[in-house]
Amino acid sequence: MLAQLPDSFPYRVLVLLHILSAVVAFAPGFVWPVVNVRMRKGEGVPAPVRALIPVLSATVYGPALVLNGLFGALAVVASPGSGDAKYVDFSKPWVSIALLLWFVMLGVLFGGLIPAERKEAQQAVTLATESRVSMFGGMLHLLFLLQLINMIFQPGG
């Protein structure tokens, strides 16, 4: 699909920023769980590390997810020649699905994962707090997979 990108420079820059912000937003979601498991096998996760996770989620990963959707929407707006089938516009069903998934991801991140991480950082780690963080992290992984499938196969596209 990238080979079919329009020849507009602004559009290509927005797509680049869209992909880059997705990497920033989601990479930690795959790294932190592995780090947590490794640390728990040793002496546990140090309190400063536990305290850092929700701060990074709220100040780096969350804003990257917000920018990801905004860059995607701006790329749709900047897509030239919207009458041509290979170009992107808001009338395509996959774009609406992408927006819906993005809003759900924002809700899971800001309404579920970050508060659960904060609670885990403020208290001793319990099975309940650990389970909530894992649940919301897993939900984000699933939503990310659905978003990738939607972007690649573009249903109704």
Give the number of helices: 4
User: Helix-strand pattern, N to C?
Assistant: HHHH
In helices, the fraction of residues equals over 70%
- How many domains, as an integer? 1
Strand content: under 5%
What value does the Rg take, in angstroms? 18 Å
User: Which runs of at least 5 residues are low in confidence (pLDDT < 50)?
Assistant: none
User: What structural class should be given to the helix and strand makeup?
Assistant: mainly alpha
Can I get a quick summary?
By secondary structure, the protein is an all-alpha fold. It has four helices and no strands. 78% of the residues lie in helices and 0% in strands.
What does this structure look like?
With 157 residues, the chain is mostly helical. The protein has one domain (6-153). The protein has helices at 9-41, 47-78, 93-122, 127-153. Helix 2 (47-78) runs antiparallel to helix 3. The longest helix has 33 residues, at 9-41. It is elongated.
Task: List the defining traits of the structure above.
157 residues; mainly alpha
Topology of this protein?
Layout (H helix, E strand, L loop, with lengths): L8 H33 L5 H32 L14 H30 L4 H27 L4
Helix pairs in contact: 1-2, 1-4, 2-3, 3-4
